[in-house]
Amino acid sequence: MSLFKEKIREKIADNALQAALDGNAERRVRSRINAFASLPDPRERRQKAHAIRADVIANLDDYLERFMAKVQENGMQVHRATTGNEAVKIILGIAHDHNARLIAKSKSMASEEIGLNHALDAEGIHAVETDLGEYIVQLRGERPSHIITPAVHLRRHEVAQLFTEKLGIPYTEDIPTLTATARSIMREIFLSADIGLSGVNFGVAETGTISIVTNEGNGRMVTTLPPVHIALMGMERLLPTLDDLALFLSLLPRSATGQKLSVYTQLIHGPEDPSSSFRSVLQEKHLIILDNGRSRLRVSPLRESLYCIRCGACLNACPIFREIGGHGYLGTDGSIAPYSGPIGSVVSPGLFGLEQFGHLAQASTLCGACKDACPVDIDLPGMLSRIRAGQGSQKGPEGIGIPSPVKVGLRGFKWITIHPKLFSAGQQILGWLALPFPTYIRIPAITGWGYSRDFPRPVKPFRARWQKLEQVESADIGISTNEIPGLLDKQVAVTSFKPLTEQFIDELELVGGHAYQIKSDELPTRLVDFIKSRSIDRVQAWDKIPRLDLARLAEGGIRVDHAADPSIKAGITSALAALADTGTLVVTCGEGFPMNASLLPEIHIAVIQISHILPSLPDAFRLAEVRNSPATVLITGPSRTADIEMTLTIGVHGPKELHVFIVDDS
């Protein structure tokens, strides 16, 4: 028996794993469906997204050239890495140039793909995963089990035991306490790291933007606080324009976590001015563009896999992943595939060879649930079938991973099916033979089929059933076709559109924020009262905030600092704009507008003018300030995580509270 099959049986027999995977799949699938229900045109967006990704991959060289030119123009250093080893050498070179010994990492599947952490450890450089789920699996010495939820395979008692053994805290299964422990440890990592390393969700060729999407706030920490930031991006992760980015940001969070927008969506154009950062010197930024087999994959029958935006929806929808989890996908040498689930069963053999991972394509029912769930409409079943036929970035034998008896049976079945009369007779014969048997036949000794799947009873031929069907009279339907238009009219919902301010407040409260609509002259007094109600007498604030005289805060007994200090409990910023349909704040940085004021303190207080509330994200992306600022962050509620047993916990690495004062500037 192969290592892969042994692992499958081991995972199916693991009751704790089955409970964890079931809980993840049920909640993720339900939340994705609910989130897409809020879009007026999900099918059209999906089709448009597919067309955009197809265009990018077809013209990738041109888009890369434009993108790299803009990135360099924006002040970032660009590196090309043909292989994973080259990417590792580039990162080690940057680390050695800065005598780095500590790297704070946010989630990056590309870094998992190239084995970066092991390479850094071998050079005496400590890399710490700062995403809660990634941190948990790093402490266990494991790979992530899921693209979005790395510790999905673990229950709370396992995390509790891990934290007791590795971190020395008293045993507790209280998830907020476990999360707070990680927050405390990570805060020191963020503030002392020599380098911050992140992945990249999207690159925008038009503006040289790199976009990073997170919920916990660790992505913002590693890109903002350390003196050096390295972004590692798969070369395929490009989009043509910011308008296209707005489209994909309406799809990715909904598919990944069931959110209209993730808590933090960063748009990074270049190094921040020292006055807008935690440092006294200009931050150094590097972008590494990784090939590592993607060029080969691009000209193969599996090129559509490069359309993937790494949302993880196909994993949640897949009945096989739900049974075995990410660690069940093994290569022929027993190593865990860097990418799992339906997309991993295509990408892993596509990047690393059919010989090593081609058999993973057999871990699929070809039911099509993955294609239905994909926000970019990738034909995963079609590509899985191609791998089974030995088609990949490199040629392989047909029927990879299929037992010899099954191959013989399939050849016989193929021969029978091309002869209609023989196929019909065979159906009838199988129907007669199946009568004395139960509704399924187990044949695990030959194929392994009956171990976890039932062999269905053959049905009568279609033609035989069709001939017995009686013609249904239209009168039996019970409704006249003349009545249908009237019935449809009755089902059309009449939507009354709320004012933008009301929409924004409703959406903000849904994501855990708090809104206060006030008159302009009330702002200083209301802020002082709010800050004092939290027993706070010192805040970090931007140099200038529209409609607010900071001297009034000092008169009210509130000390105002402009420099970052981790001990400060509240930060006050303004917002360039707010988005009514998602409850999002658009915050840009600049001289006197430090990005960390909305990041380091436990409480973020934002001031937004009522006239700056916009309908949706595309409206914000048209603003010149967004296109020209070194960095912009879209903030949708306080930081959060659900990495332990899918239990929502507010306040991880970013602020625990978000309070928005909406000033009537009419």
Instruction: Please give the order of strands in the largest beta sheet.
Output: 8-5-6-9-19-16-15-18
Tell me the total number of β-strands.
Answer: 22
Computed over alpha carbons, the radius of gyration is: 28 Å
Overall pLDDT metric: 89
| Shape verdict | globular
Low-pLDDT residue intervals, each spanning 5 or more residues: 471-496
List keywords for this structure.
globular, single chain, Rossmann fold, eight-stranded mixed beta sheet, alpha/beta, 666 residues, 15% strand, 29 helices, six-stranded parallel beta sheet
Describe the structure in your own words.
The chain has 666 residues and is an alpha/beta fold. Among the domains are: 404-465, no CATH class; 500-664, Rossmann fold (3-Layer(aba) Sandwich), CATH 3.40.50. Helices cover 41% and strands 15% of the residues. The chain has 29 helices and 22 strands. The strands form 4 sheets. An 8-stranded mixed β-sheet has the order 8-5-6-9-19-16-15-18. Strands 1-10-7-4-2-3 form a 6-stranded parallel β-sheet, with helices on both faces. The protein has a 6-stranded parallel β-sheet with strand order 11-22-17-14-12-13. Helix 17 packs across helix 20. The longest helix has 22 residues, at 15-36. The radius of gyration is 28 Å and the shape is globular. Mean pLDDT is 89; it is low at 471-496.
Ordered list of secondary-structure elements with their pairings:
Elements: H1 3-12, H2 15-36, H3 42-58, H4 60-73, E1 77-81, H5 84-97, E2 102-105, H6 109-113, H7 116-122, E3 126-129, H8 132-139, H9 156-167, H10 175-192, E4 195-198, E5 202-204, E6 209-214, H11 218-224, E7 228-234, E8 238-239, H12 242-249, H13 252-257, E9 264-268, E10 284-290, H14 294-298, H15 313-317, H16 321-324, H17 341-352, H18 354-357, H19 369-373, H20 380-388, H21 404-417, H22 420-434, H23 462-468, H24 484-491, H25 500-510, E11 514-519, H26 523-533, E12 538-541, H27 550-555, E13 559-561, E14 570-574, E15 577-579, E16 584-588, E17 603-609, E18 613-614, H28 617-621, H29 624-628, E19 631-635, E20 640-641, E21 649-650, E22 657-664
Parallel strand pairs: 1-10, 2-3, 2-4, 4-7, 5-8, 7-10, 11-22, 12-13, 12-14, 14-17, 15-18, 17-22
Antiparallel strand pairs: 5-6, 6-9, 9-19, 15-16, 16-19, 20-21
